[in-house]
Structures are given as structure tokens and as C-alpha cells.
Amino acid sequence: MNTRAMLKRSVDDELRRPVPTPTGVFHRSKMSWLCASLCLLGLHAITTHRSFAQERSVAFRTDQRRLQLLVNNLKARLSIPEPVIVSLVATNPVMMSVAAPTDSSGEFQLAIEAAFLDLLTEDELEAAIAHELGHVWVFTHHPYLQTEGLANQIATRVVSRGSLERVYDKVWKRGGIKGDIVQFLGPQPVAGLAADDQAVQTAH
Fold this sequence. Notes:
The structure is a single chain. This protein is mainly α. The protein has 8 helices and 3 strands, in the order ααβββαααααα. It has helices at 3-16, 25-77, 114-117, 122-141, 148-155, 161-175, 181-185, 197-202, and strands at residues 84-89, 96-99, 108-113. Strands 1-3-2 form a 3-stranded mixed β-sheet. The radius of gyration is 34 Å and the shape is globular.
């Protein structure tokens, strides 16, 4: 075999030789560090998710207890003995609603959409709940006269007209509509013939 042929064979052999896989202490150490880092990141993500979920669960239960106390307080002021159980829900087509009892427990179910709750001030929340309790009062006294206007008449025994107006305004804005407040609350009372917001708040 001549020199040229030997050189060609040597080059061919070299090209066919597999590229060595990196080995050694440095390579193993680097891979181990990478795996450990990924594991730690995954563990942190899981821990963070669980912590966030736990915080949301605690906040949810706290809100629900606070709402139930408010419902119970307004029920007492409106002389409503029937049980009304409040619950926060993810969605409610009308944002807040009350349902009549469906079994022998006699419990009314008041459902409040969580996102809508976040939009309300304390006095607006009280007004919205008073309105729903107005429906409960009407149902237990005059079930065939169930109207928004009558429910609001009951509500204004314990909350101001102004707070109800603000609740309707937020409901309509969220729904992208414009309603007629007179249809739901009647004409604005003439000064001196009805209690204004301040008088109602003072009576609390």
C-alpha cells in the first residue's frame, strides 16, 4: 500500500471514529447541579401554588363568615326569622340572587358572585344584601306580590336610597346597560317628606 493510500485510510478511519461523550468529574458535577436546580425550581413552584391556594381558601372562608354575619344582622333588623344561608360563587348571571327553600329545611340560599363582591363598598354591600332580604320578606308575607320595587321598599327600612342607587349603577355598568332607577326605587322623595341618607345611616 503506497503512502497516499495509507494516509487516505487513516483519514477515513478518523472520520468514522465516534465523537466521545463528555465524561469526567466536571461533566457529572455540572449535570448533577442542573438536575438539582430543576428539582428545586419545581418544588418551589409547587410550594408557591399550594401556599397561594391555601391563602385564597382562608380568605374565601373569611369572606363567607363575614357575609353570613352581615346577613344575620340585617335579618334581625328586618324581623326575618327564616334562615338565609349565604355563599360566594364563581359566577352568577345576575351577580347576586336569593332562592326560595327547596326542601324541609326552609333555608333561603343567597348567592353572591365573588367578582361582584369586590366591586362593592361596605355600604353598597349592605344595601345589596338588604335588597335580597327584601325579596325574602316579600316571599314570606306576600309571595304573589314579588317585585323589585317592593323588595327595595323593605330594604330602605335599614339602608339608604342612595346606597341602593349606587348598587344599581354598578350592576348596570357591569352588564353594559342603562336602567331606569325610578322603575326600581320610585321617584326621588321630596325633602322633608322622607328620611334622607344621613337619617337612615344615623338610625343604624
